[in-house]
Design a protein that fits this description.
About 50% of the residues lie in helices and about 20% in strands. By secondary structure, it is of the alpha+beta class.
């Protein structure tokens, strides 16, 4: 017996722990929203391209667009133009759109529009990058100045990260004569990046230019230059002006490399204007869209991966354990008497269509009339199977009559009476009749009332939208329910109704 108790406790602990761990993984790691009310940001990015086309030459416009192999995923991408061909090319981790036309003249306007959101899944491609590069050739005074700067950098650094940080710091010290020499009178951010790259190359540390856009609504945007280097495991990002390390979460990488954002052949005075705005969308709907637009389908092995019609069915079925738990508590702890264990749950399912008040009325009417017929058939001394067949047929006829009159009276809700489980109603009538014969009408009425109370409570709990969403989205919580049911299975104490029944004995 002791071994059995230990086995049961271990089983309960395993089920509850597994349910909690799986649910926590979905919430905190995958980022699946806990409620239907949660919303997430959706970003709309517009890049407006303007230029003057030459009337004689073919026009070819090339512009970098986000690679989207980062923390964001594209939900929609469109290229808006008039009489231009559009193509997308990939090169060195970048994406470039090409607009082309045989003839164009005057002012031209092209649009690139992108709708994106944060990537839900934590699974990202493993970062890859160069860890060595050849030195940039430099001679004379520039070489001496570069080596003079590198000496303290090497002394005050311990790895790639600290080496680059120290380099950025030294280059931004405009009071240093060596820095002034390397700048050659140009202290722009582009030239600072060039000097940083020169110093890093001498130390054989590779570096890439990264051009980013800030995800800030209703503010003018221009690409912001960042630097990055690969340390063997991850990309390290640095701001060449401020020395800030780590790419902020509101930055979207647009392209990498030394090339310009846009290149126009057959035109001049090209200009790109960025505009951004954001909106909110239901989080779980956004998660589904993200799942559809990524290779990593983190919802694929959830119930959301089922066909839509099947999902609707399982949203009902998955709440059955909740209803069963209500019945279990009411019977084992409360001492409520019902017609069987699962009959109230099935009646509660019917209440989903008829609504509670109307459903109770229909159940009462059909059961009362069925009991009258059952009492009459008892006088005919029929065997059980023919008697049940007659009652079932009567229930079907009664349901049809109620539906017909409901329709004629404009009570469309009455049509849903057909959703009542006819076999369950038939067996309910039969069992109530037997209970009446064996233990009297009062006890039969008490059992019928208990069944309706249990069905009503189960219906109210199973119909809570927030609970339905949570259980459907995180079905592992059912393992926690199973653990609770197993724990209740060994309960041998007094029920609530027995506390009143045996009140005198308890005092003794």
């Amino acid at each position: 017996m002791r071994a059995l108790n230990l086995h049961l406790k271990v089983l309960i602990a395993l089920l509850v722990s597994l349910g909690i761990l799986v649910t926590a993984y979905q919430i905190f790691i995958l980022g699946i929203p806990m409620t239907t009310d949660e919303t997430d940001y959706l970003w709309n990015v517009d890049a407006k391209v303007e230029f003057q086309a030459s009337s004689r030459d073919p026009v070819k416009v090339q512009m970098f667009v986000p690679p989207l192999n980062q923390d964001y995923v594209s939900l929609n991408e469109s290229f808006i133009s008039n009489n231009y061909g559009v193509s997308i090319n990939r090169n060195d981790g970048n994406r470039k759109v090409t607009w082309s036309a045989r003839r164009a003249s005057g002012n031209q306007t092209l649009y690139y529009r992108l709708v994106l959101t944060k990537r839900y899944s934590d699974e990202k491609p493993k970062a890859k990058g160069p860890i060595f590069r050849d030195s940039i050739a430099v001679e004379g005074a520039e070489k001496i100045a570069a080596e003079a700067l590198l000496a303290p950098i090497r002394q005050h650094s311990a790895d790639v990260e600290t080496f680059i940080s120290e380099t950025v710091k030294r280059v931004n010290n405009t009071n240093d004569d060596n820095v002034k020499l390397l700048f050659a009178g140009d202290s722009s951010v582009t030239n600072k990046a060039r000097v940083i790259e020169l110093l890093l190359s001498i130390a054989h540390v590779p570096m890439e230019r990264v051009h980013t856009i800030r995800l800030v609504a209703d503010q003018p945007q221009t690409p912001e230059l960042w630097l990055r280097s690969f340390n063997g495991n991850n990309w390290l990002y640095f701001n060449p002006e401020s020395g800030e390390q780590g790419l902020p979460s509101d930055r979207l990488v647009w392209w990498t490399g030394d090339d310009n954002l846009i290149n126009v052949e057959g035109g001049k005075k090209a200009k790109v204007t960025f505009s951004l705005d954001n909106s909110e969308m239901n989080a779980i709907h956004l998660a589904k869209l993200t799942d559809e637009n990524t290779d990593v389908n983190f919802l694929e092995y959830s119930l959301y991966g089922l066909p839509l019609q099947t999902q609707q069915t399982y949203q009902i079925l998955i709440m059955l354990p909740i209803g069963v738990l209500v019945i279990l508590i009411l019977r084992n702890l409360g001492g409520l008497q019902t017609l069987g264990t699962f009959t109230p749950v099935l009646i509660a399912l019917a209440f989903r269509e008829t609504q509670l008040g109307f459903g109770i009325m229909l159940f009462t009417v059909i059961t009362a009339l069925g009991l009258s017929l059952r009492s009459y058939l008892e006088h005919l001394k029929l065997q059980m199977l023919p008697r049940l067949s007659v009652v079932l047929t009567f229930v079907v006829i009664l349901i049809a009559v109620i539906s017909l009159f409901s329709h004629k009276l404009g009570l469309e809700r009455g049509l849903s009476v057909s959703l009542f489980p006819m076999v369950i109603l038939t067996m309910t009538i039969e069992r109530l009749s037997i209970t009446w014969e064996e233990r009297g009408g009062g006890h039969a009425f008490k059992v019928a009332a208990g069944t309706l109370v249990a069905a009503s409570l189960a219906y109210l709990l199973m119909n809570i939208p927030e609970l339905t969403y949570f259980v459907f989205t995180f079905p592992a919580v059912l393992l926690i329910l199973v653990g609770f049911m197993l724990a209740m299975g060994r309960y041998r104490g007094y029920r609530l109704t027995e506390l009143f029944r045996f009140k005198a004995f308890l005092k003794d």
